[in-house]
Specification:
This protein is 45% helix and 12% strand. It has 172 residues and is an alpha/beta fold. It has a single domain, classed as Rossmann fold, CATH 3.40.50.
Length: 172
């Protein structure tokens, strides 16, 4: 019996349009070999669209998007679903407080709100690991540990996930 294929949700900063990120090239190789699955969020699609970068837009099309749960004043009609009630699920303001401490969740910038929505979509999709190189908002000052402790959300950098999977699974 084989192990479950890991599912990784990737942040927008990992769109490897020019194939210059060695570790992302490795993840994409493993995906192509059927060893893991890479998914994105609706916010990834939105953010790539604002850059108007043709190569990034083409690359984004190769990454399936997970659905976004409906969050009042955050979600877009036609791109969100009504999630079943879940007492353990993170709320927008809960994640906002971890990622942007001391900042009123109603006053987040568009990019900050997108960061929170990336994690909410990741959580509800059932993906295993959220991969980002945005250490400031997702990892530093104990954020990674609080996200894991409070919601079971595992956040890891691109280089860390490649190193971990190489060691754990013996992938090359």
């Amino acid at each position: 019996m084989s192990e479950k294929k890991p599912i990784l949700t990737v942040d927008t900063n990992l769109i490897n349009a020019k194939q210059r990120m060695t570790s992302m090239n490795k993840l994409e190789q493993w995906r192509d070999e059927g060893k893991l699955k890479i998914v994105g969020t609706f916010r990834l699609k939105m953010e790539i669209g604002t850059y108007k970068n043709r190569k990034a837009s083409e690359k984004e099309k190769t990454i399936p998007n997970v659905s976004e749960p409906l969050i009042l004043n955050q979600s877009f009609i036609g791109h969100a679903y009504l999630a079943a009630p879940n007492d353990k699920a993170p709320q927008f303001w809960d994640l906002s407080a971890i990622m942007f401490p001391g900042k009123d969740y109603k006053k987040l910038t568009k990019n900050e709100s997108n960061d929170v929505m990336h994690l909410i979509s990741h959580y509800f999709s059932g993906s295993d690991i959220f991969v980002t190189d945005d250490k400031k908002h997702f990892i530093s000052n104990g954020r990674r540990e609080r996200l894991k402790y409070k919601f079971g959300i595992i956040v890891i950098t691109l280089d860390e996930v490649v190193k971990e999977f190489s060691t754990k699974f013996g992938w090359t």
